[in-house]
Amino acid sequence: MKKHAIAIAVGSLFALPAVALAGGPTVYGKVNVTYEGIEETDKNGITDVDNWQLQSNDSRLGVKGSFDLDARDLTAIYGLEFGVDVDEGDSGGETFKQRNIYGGLQHATMGTFKVGKFDTPFKKAQGDVDQFGDLGGDIKHIAAGENRESNILQYTSPKLGDVVTVNVAFMPGEDDEASDRDGPADSISSSLVFDNGTFYGALAYDSEMGDDTFDAALSPEEGDDYVDAFRAVGMMNMGNFEFGGLVQTAESSEDVGGKTYEDTTTLVSGAYGVDRWKFKAQYGVTDMDQLDDERSLMAIGADYKMGKASKLFAYYSQVEQDETEFEETHLGLGFQHKFSM
What residue range is the signal peptide (predicted)? Predict the structure, then answer.
């Protein structure tokens, strides 16, 4: 009898939210799992990792939606997205990891204003150029600016001429006066995006953005260094073919150890689709001027579409840095399921 009562209670727990959500928010997510052979060699040429791992690759669960307000053409918007570790069930004891979290207002003709923690316009400007996002071949392994920031206030214009969008975001430092990061807009991220379905192009700029991608190169001290960066992206979608490219420069906002560091990143990517198959590749290089060093990324792979929102895939990636002899390789086989309701 007790077991029967427990079963009814558990069933009700799941049934009630389903009723409440009907016709309201959209629940969505992605399960993105790979079984990978990973090898990592450190800056001294010593192999630290050489094993097989099950990877969750930023699998996620989220809810988003909007509702009308008592004001003409004005809508409330919100989104709550959390990362989940499919392989281990938690991450450091946390079942959910905060990803893109926001709330805001959207006007039919004046654009959208939102606040919270989410990907910067600079990061989003990459579009679909990165063919291996969330995997070992992700461009974040060589390029600065791939940031999800807290305390963002962002304005997004309506789509101008149905093809152009402007995004401007700023972040208060929220630190004490001694750190000089106590102003209303200590960091700024912005982008200008053109998208007509066939061609995608974007220009993006970051000003004094905290970025830890090159901390080891810029400074041995803990914590982010502040970076100014410019990014230009272009991508063509022509039937079965996709071609993309990214060029960016990133430099330290202030001298570090008496030096200004400037790094230049270039990346090209492409894909060819036939029937259910998609074959893809990308190659990128970051030149680090002060270190007289170079970090490169190479990735190749193939996707097999099993349904509208599901695929199997295999890939190989290699990230290496010349002078320090750092190298990381991934050989993976996995699947991805997307869902929404």
Answer: 1-22
Torsions phi, psi for 218 (to 5 deg): -80, -40
Q: Any idea what the Cα angle at residue 75 is, between residues 69 and 76, rounded to 5°?
A: 90
Residues 6+ positions from 94 with CB-CB distance below 8 Å: none
b/e sequence 117-145, b meaning 16+ C-beta within 10 Å: ebbbbbbbbbbebbbbbbbbbbbbbbbbb
Query: How far is the C-alpha of 337 from the C-alpha of 341, rounded, in Å?
Result: 14
Specify the number of domains making up the chain.
1
Q: Please state the pTM of the whole predicted model.
A: 0.87
Of 92-96, 160-164, 302-306, least confident by mean pLDDT is 92-96
Of residues 153 and 186, more confidence is placed in: 153
pLDDT of residue 71: 87
Does residue 10 lie in a domain region?
no
| Pair 253, 226: CB distance under 8 Å | yes
Higher pLDDT among residues 283 and 89, named by residue = 283
Q: Is residue 5 part of a domain?
A: no
In a domain, residue 6? The reply is: no
Reported as a single tens digit per residue, the pLDDT across 200-241 is 999 999 998 887 755 544 443 444 678 999 999 999 999 899
Q: What is the CATH number of the domain that holds 155?
A: 2.40.160.10
Over residues 86-101, the mean pLDDT reads 85
For residue 222, the enclosing domain spans 38-340
Evaluate whether 233 touches 245 at the Cβ level (below 8 Å): yes
Quickly tell me which residue has 């450190």 as its tokens: 42
Half-sphere exposure of 173 (CA within 13 A, CB side): 16
Side-chain-side CA neighbours of 152 within 13 Å: the count stands at: 29
214 part of a folded domain: yes
